[in-house]
Specification:
The termini are far apart. 63% of the residues lie in helices and 6% in strands. By secondary structure, the protein is mainly alpha-helical.
Length: 210
Amino acid sequence: MTNPIADRPKRFSMIREFHLADWFTLGNAVCGVGALFSAMTYLENGDLRHVYFAAALVLAALIFDVLDGRVARWRQKSSAMGRELDSLADVISFGVAPAVLAYACGMQGGWDRIVLAYFVACGVSRLARYNVTAETLSGDDGKVKYFEGTPIPTSIALVALLAVAAAMGAVRETLWFGQWHVAGWGLHPLVLVFALSGSLMISRIRIPKI
């Protein structure tokens, strides 16, 4: 005879199952959301400090992303849930946040939006491919030896570029390389670095995993 009380799920059972590394992953996600808030605040009031806040938060997200992997290896505890958490956090911090920050800094033309959406889609695809191929890419010790395509956290370089542009006053109407008009839609040439970054993410080039 089963005990209905014993069979009842414990309160906060999902949180109880989190490993220490998962909390660092959540820190990554929280920083990414904070970067989004800062980018939107800059859109509203034009205070450049919020561009720097957004860039700093993406950097903090990268630190959490590095730490969660190190903690998982140190404690020798990982899970499928942790891997999915990591991917979802990375989409926010290194996919959506850089794209929204670029939009806030002036890449708001029709072609700009398409390129930025492409960049995010490439990041999502890159993470999904990694999740489904991680086992086949693993060596005899079960560790993944290399990435296929550049990892999505490399978008920190794009965020740094935007922060430098902001420091030099090259945002919005004064964005580097100006704006082109193609078929009636605006295109800022600077947005093409996002197209390149996204394309490298979905490429087949092999990047050794450190």
